[in-house]
Amino acid sequence: MAFNHLPATMHDALGALSVTPVTHSVPMARNHRPSRSPENGDARPSPGTVLDRLAARANRAARITHTEHLPPREGRHAVWPDRVRPEVIDAIHQAGVGHPWTHQATAAEHALDGESVVIATGTASGKSLAYLAPVLTTLLDGSEAANGRGTTALYLSPTKALAADQRRAVRSLSAPLGNRIRPAVYDGDTPVEEREWVRQYANYVLTNPDMLHRGILPSHPRWASFLRALRYVVIDECHTYRGVFGSHVAQVLRRLRRLCARYGSDPVFLLASATAAEPAVAASRLTGLPVREVADDASPRGELVFALWEPPLTELEGENGAPVRRTATAETADLLADLAVQGVRSVAFVRSRRGAELISVIAQERLAEVDRFLARRVAAYRGGYLPEERRALERALHSGELLGLAATTALELGIDVSGLDAVLIAGYPGTRASLWQQAGRAGRSGEGALAVLVARDDPLDTYLVHHPEALFRRPVESTVLDPDNPYVLAPHLCAAAAESPLSDDDLALFGPSAPELLPQLEAAGLLRRRASGWYWTRRERAADLADIRGEGRSPVQIVEEGTGRLLGTVDASAAHTTVHEGAVHLHQGRTYLVRHLDLEESVALVEQADPPYSTTARDTTSISVLETDTGIPWGSGRLCYGSVEVTNQVVSFLRRRLLTGEVLGETKLDLPPRTLRTRAVWWTVTEDQLDAARVNPEQLGGALHAAEHASIGLLPLFATCDRWDIGGVSVPLHPDTLLPTVFVYDGHPGGAGFAERAFHTARAWLGATREAIASCECDAGCPSCIQSPKCGNGNDPLHKRAAVRLLTELLRGAPQDPPGPATPPEGPPVT
Questions:
Q1: Distance (Å, rounded) from C-alpha 107 to C-alpha 293?
Q2: Distance CA 392, CA 162 (A)
Q3: Which of 198, 446, 468, 694 is the most exposed place for a label (fewest CB within 10 A)?
Q4: Closest Cα partner for 755 from 733, 727, 785, 781?
């Protein structure tokens, strides 16, 4: 029997291809922002005072496991480079900004010198202004040197909301410059009647990689004048471009560079990120260009009080009698309500859309008991809302009408939410980079701020709140992306050929794997070789082969059955787990039950209801080894890395009582299986190791299963992923290895680099896994150490003590972590 844990997304492979066994800051940096006046009744309590008030209620002080105090920091000024136009400097002064910080001036100097540069300084350090000064200067120069549009610039952000926020800031900043600066958003929400104006007249176009991939590049003849005059490409929040998404964006940027060269331009790339390790290396891999690094943050910073908060144990019992903690969702909702009562402007970040809705609803109910008007000042913000709903919430947040917001990471990135006093983080967001990005949303006017990480009942969160050094004494993670992933590269080669025939000279731009893939694409009937290059042969749009978010199919529409009203969408890859029949769906504070899921039509029909429970899908997984790329001895066992095929099927869902998480029942489902070819790390153990660890046959399955769950939970500390990007399977006797085996795999076609990172840090990774299990206060295993909420086997069997002994013996024979990257995968032959 195989015990498994599936990632949140399960993607289909690209149709014709198969693998064989082989921060950024506020939009405009307010360098000299006045404090809010106590005379106006708007004085802020200190962050320590706010935390003390939270801890004093309901005897909560024992829930704080650690408090970190980051002291304030003075700023260091410089002067703008001489080449920044006086009109631009005057506009910056009129916006309330005096002298630039040193890093702003340095970055602007590199940009004006024609050097691509990445600005990697803290949240609210004025990165926007660092690139806007040279961009606006160049646009003004271009407006005077040429008739018509003149010089142009392109701005890319990972979300629509951030692009809209940036447009507001650029319009405000450039107002004194007249109509020579014409910013415009071009995305899926842009009305059709406005798009032609943007193409012809806008000289600062703000969009996202999705629209660049599907809209702008395939229609490049209509954008010819814009691309011909393109001088700068701004890539905001560049640390978000990681994994499969980042790999796709890297290839989209290479397609952009190729078309710019065809039109005679060679744009400079300006990248911004508040949180990145080795930013120049990551930026170079993303763009394919040499990039200068500016990482010495000269901006001032207010005091930050950062608390780690562990919800208490309840009297309830979970699966197999395990103790259960109060949920992070319920705890965060209470804290958000308490902050609102204090008048503390706050945002609560939560990982899931459903969680954001639930926190908002619970907080509103708590506040309604105090003041019904106050309850209306708390709302939810997440992806999947209709454009008009998102815009209304953003306006309410900017105006201060909203006092508290429960948000997904859609609000994490760069949107100007200045004025916030506190940030609540409901569960570790998966990486230290995201943690600091979210914490940095408070105190953005240079004043003190409070951040609270509320731990979920799972191995990683429990480990972190009791090991604060893992958060506060370690740098953020390196960005992991692999543009040479054949599942990523192949569709972009097709898209590039459709945009303009591929020549042999183009191939170096797309990486060393490109020449190997082209004959396979020709054999599949996707490309045709002619004397002048490789041509796209089909009538369909080549850009549709690649969904750069990695979803692979159109999103599922969520429709109210009685009225036909479209409520929102959910990614196709998540439909099996989130909108299956019987699933509870939350939208804008209202609860719906899914009555029917039509996978062929990509529609989920729902009706409004008020069930006293939430739902959690369960699945089963099997795995087969396609090829072992590399392996090293671990005692008498082995640690390996290579290609695997994973088959998954959602088989049932649990109904859990709201707030407590108590399981009320399980309902079977009949959904089709899905397959995934990806990359994995796995380790085997031998009979000798089992004997040394005193693990008998009756304990073996539970020991492997427990180690698998905990290792998945701890991997985000060592790779730039979260636990929902990865999956796992444990097997007492695997048919391919003929030994007890634990697999951890990337949840994306072709891999995303996470399993490879696990292979190279296996000693430290599995060492932390062993410590997390051994130090947990439970007797036989609980959600804080070895139980998983997504386990398809009902968290049975699990054996905590045997898992600790097994990992101890495994680590005894472990060599030092392997240096260097693993052997890259071979390109997939076309079938």
A1: 8
A2: 14
A3: 694
A4: 727
